[in-house]
Write a sequence for this structure.
């Protein structure tokens, strides 16, 4: 059986970022940049005032100096003239420093009326001036390709005068749930059957990670039905199936896809929950087969689906971020499969994480998965640990799950 | 001047959650639940097998027993008959345990052909059986109102047979940027002017936090223009303005809104960046006036806008989550204003956060804000600290910024 890391590497090796498209700034938040954002202007464009105050000549900036106010320059209305000896121009935050002036005295350090300002403090050349280009200069590369754009990045791109940005196309992720026993919510449920939950959870997850989900109709446990359903995914960037990934008599996904020419890479990994994880290619279409069990499917989506979708989005496809937490209960020794214990989190008095795995870890407990905050990572053959041991966790909601 | 906490409390006191609407499961991820999700069925609906194996009578479950296989029950196809003495039915994960059987022996512990199974291990009643209702029982409250729905929650609601969910309506947040000096990206820029960035950054932020942004056309620095623009926001749940929130000669937002009957609550708080923060009401419309400076606007959006929008969404409106980090550089003593130092984060060898504030903290540096990972919280009058002190940080991208 493959390790989690090997399996992830083999999945990523077969995935390439989507092509690029142009979107408006408004659509670009959360998208992955496909071309650098280069400053189209210098910011600030000229020397501007950092405060409300008066622009004058440094030679005049002595305590008690009495200067004639020759004008004002509100932001957006630069003073057209020049500041001479004994003169001052009123400025506001962001006002362009007028020609002739090389010093600003802030309003709080003056006494003034409409015509005259008296300085109560000395000024120094350059003080309270934001020099042209303090933030950035035309031609600067402000944001590099491969970056997931934050709201702040959008502000920066706007300030650099970009109405449009070039980003990777959102990858289309087709989701195929299989099984004679499952029904869509609200539809008639077959005898002994259950309501399909994986597709809906995956759709939310795929959107959160940056993809566009397409939920294919449920395929019955029948090779031909599975093959037909999978063909509907031919134009997707990734097909994710749930259920039937193993090689049991009724695990027909592998068989159904084999009929279409599946190039199977692997179908079993050393982890829990979720041993039967399948990966391969149908022609150019990568296929990730998740277990049918909802908890296993979600944990595998986190460990493999997130990096896969992120790689398609133009990101590196790093493993989901883990961080340290102190475990409040003893941990049993682990067997040969990497384990992922569903757990709740609280903050310790010093702000660090305390993690408490649930007692029952049965992989059918969807309700407990929903109430979990994190999974605790347990390496293969990890030894038993007493309460208080620091372990690695992955926080679920922070990963879009 | 108000403290950050007082200001936040006064803002939240005037905000109420939006009403509710029905959305499909597919749309519900990330929305805030407005009615409980109650299980419409029991999961699993009957006793089911946790493994591939054979159902039989516990009395027959001895090593070496040789049982007649009378049928199979793949998931979704329950066995119609009853299991008698000396008989077994083949089961798969999720198969309903047939009537008469009270014991499962897993496939790995048997030798079998089409007709006969020989047990190589003893069985125990109830072992490998997932009892009816193990996950949840009809009538159970699975998800409480006021919860932001994760992808896992959507899966759970689906499994409980809900095609629709009742959630709070997304609040509509109107954004009004003001200033004679600003232009939209790609539009002609006035002399000495700059490109508007706040509206675009705020739009991305508002969406990330759960609201629907409406970007109003830029209003010139003119009381009448501001009043007209603000009237366009009358049907929003919140109006956010940027710029002109102070009482300077050219800070006309307060004046323009006063002409419409603004009920001003406060306009100045003890924080940096961002002293001129305004809050009030225009009739029923809450108005949050952010500073015009982009860095100040974003930090104020984080500290006040996020809780405000979350409260409108149906959440409590908690302060943005902070966590501990070790500061790599010495910190100067702080004055009377709470400070928010833009900083980068790395992980220490033990996985804990190391935070490094930027040297220049000038609030005009939008590029540095985009490159920042966090802000370091510095309380009013916080004393100087050596390098290595543990401080509180807020991670920006995790907060939708």
């Amino acid at each position: 059986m493959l390790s989690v890391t090997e399996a992830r590497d083999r999945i990523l090796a077969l995935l390439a970022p989507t092509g690029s498209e142009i979107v408006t700034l408004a659509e670009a938040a959360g998208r992955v940049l496909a071309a650098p954002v280069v400053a189209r202007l210098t910011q600030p464009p000229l020397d501007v005032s950092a405060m409300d105050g008066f622009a004058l000549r440094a030679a005049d900036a002595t305590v008690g100096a009495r200067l004639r106010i020759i004008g004002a320059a509100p932001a957006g209305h630069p003073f057209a003239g020049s500041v001479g000896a004994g003169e001052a121009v009123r400025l506001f935050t962001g006002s362009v420093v007028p020609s002739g002036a090389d010093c600003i005295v802030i309003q709080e350090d003056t006494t003034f009326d409409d015509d005259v300002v008296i300085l109560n403090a000395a000024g120094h050349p350059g003080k309270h001036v934001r020099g042209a280009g303090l933030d950035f200069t035309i031609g600067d590369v402000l944001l590099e390709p491969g970056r997931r754009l934050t709201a702040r990045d959008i502000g920066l791109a706007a300030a650099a005068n970009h109405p449009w940005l070039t980003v990777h196309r959102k990858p289309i992720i087709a989701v195929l749930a299989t099984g004679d026993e499952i029904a869509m919510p609200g539809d008639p449920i077959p005898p002994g059957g259950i309501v399909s939950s994986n597709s809906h959870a995956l759709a939310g997850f795929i959107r959160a990670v940056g993809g566009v989900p397409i939920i294919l109709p449920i395929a019955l446990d029948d090779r031909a039905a599975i093959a037909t359903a999978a063909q509907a995914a031919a134009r997707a960037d990734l097909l994710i199936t749930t259920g039937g990934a193993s090689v049991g008599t009724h695990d027909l996904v592998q068989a159904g896809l084999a009929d279409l020419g599946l190039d199977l890479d692997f179908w079993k990994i050393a982890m829990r929950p979720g041993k039967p994880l399948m990966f391969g290619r149908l022609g150019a279409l990568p296929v990730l087969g998740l277990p049918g069990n909802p908890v296993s499917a979600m944990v595998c989506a986190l460990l493999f689906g997130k990096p896969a979708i992120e790689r398609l989005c133009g990101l590196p496809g790093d493993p989901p971020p883990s961080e340290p937490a102190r475990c409040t209960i003893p941990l049993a020794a682990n067997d040969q499969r990497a384990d992922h214990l569903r757990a709740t989190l609280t903050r310790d008095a010093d702000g660090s994480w305390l993690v408490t795995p649930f007692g029952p870890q049965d992989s059918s407990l969807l309700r407990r998965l929903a109430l979990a905050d994190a999974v605790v990572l347990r390496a293969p053959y990890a030894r038993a640990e007493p309460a208080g041991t620091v372990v690695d966790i992955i926080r679920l909601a922070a990963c879009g799950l």
